[in-house]
UniProtKB/TrEMBL annotation:
Protein name (database record): Lipoprotein
Domain of life: Bacteria
Length: 86
């Protein structure tokens, strides 16, 4: 059975979309102020499991502070930042 071209395109678009989005270099975390950001964060800047990082929305990835202890960092999250949990 041969599928008409429009049907074939529909069958190929979804797997292609999934494959391409899975290769993205950024991860999106929750929009809650104390658990993440709605902005894309480069994967290499996501904190390690068990650690957190304050992420400033108006700074480049290279200007972000280092990861640290979640209990300590969650007490000092400024208004222009979010707390990323690893």
């Amino acid at each position: 059975m041969r599928l008409p071209t429009p049907h074939l395109h529909r069958l190929l678009v979804l797997p292609l979309f999934i494959a391409l989005t899975g290769c993205a270099a950024y991860s999106v975390v929750n929009s809650d102020r104390y658990s993440g950001s709605s902005s894309a964060v480069p994967a290499e800047y996501i904190p390690s499991p068990g650690f957190c990082r304050i992420w400033y929305k108006n700074r480049t990835p290279e200007q972000q502070p280092a990861q640290g202890d979640c209990d300590k960092l969650k007490q000092d999250v400024p208004e222009n930042a979010v707390l990323l949990k690893g």
